[in-house]
């Protein structure tokens, strides 16, 4: 959840924003992408994304880049309602403090405590740390907790005109396999990429017609 934190902060902004048509969004967790708000959670042939979080290394520094479209940037920059009686100058700053020093910090402390407990218990028996999979979407957790700096990764926020997203991931998320292109490496800015769609029926037919190359082959000969 640590690397997901900027996305969770952004979701809080979307939930509180007044300039957006809806706060109903689809999140593609594999690529940390937030799809554009819709009034109903339904598959959209012309879907677009409103934000995406990238992680990369540059000049020996691990850092993050949060791309947002104009509407999300406007929501992030908006002033919190006066009746909230908060000091933060923007909705993004308020949401960051609300998440980073609130529920996120509590989860960080719990994960850190659990890891240290398991690591201590593993010392002396020659075995690795007995730790199961975490509840996050990544396969392994980033264990980090700090009262002063809750997010240790430099983060740049960039407003862009369009956000690229993985169409097949969106189709999988919405359980619309017939619309997939069959390649998770293909990105698009709106709707399905130009590749020919592979329907579920075509995939089943191709599988059934594929010859069993090794079914009747003799075993390897020994020299």
Report on this structure.
The protein is globular. It has helices at 5-16, 70-77, 91-122, 167-173, 200-209, and strands spanning 27-28, 33-35, 49-58, 61-68, 155-159, 165-166, 187-188. The chain is α+β, with helices and mostly antiparallel strands and 223 residues long. The model is unreliable at 136-146 and 195-223 (pLDDT under 50). The chain has one domain (5-209).
Calculate the terminal CA-CA distance, rounded to whole Å. Answer: 55 Å
With strands numbered from the N-terminus, the spatial order across the biggest sheet is 1-2-3-4-5
- What's the alpha carbon Rg, rounded to whole Å? 23 Å
Structural class: alpha+beta
Q: Helical segment tally?
A: 5
Largest sheet: 5 strands, mixed
Average pLDDT reading? 78
Strand residue content:
5-15%
Total domains, how many? Answer: 1
Low-confidence stretches: 136-146, 195-223
Question: What overall form do the CA principal axes indicate?
Answer: globular
Order of helices and strands: HEEEEHHEEHEH
**Topology, number of strands:** 7
Features:
single chain, 223 residues, alpha+beta, five-stranded mixed beta sheet, two-stranded antiparallel ribbon, globular, disordered C terminus
SSE topology sketch:
Blueprint: H1 5-16, E1 27-28, E2 33-35, E3 49-58, E4 61-68, H2 70-77, H3 91-122, E5 155-159, E6 165-166, H4 167-173, E7 187-188, H5 200-209
Parallel strand pairs: 4-5
Antiparallel strand pairs: 1-2, 2-3, 3-4, 6-7
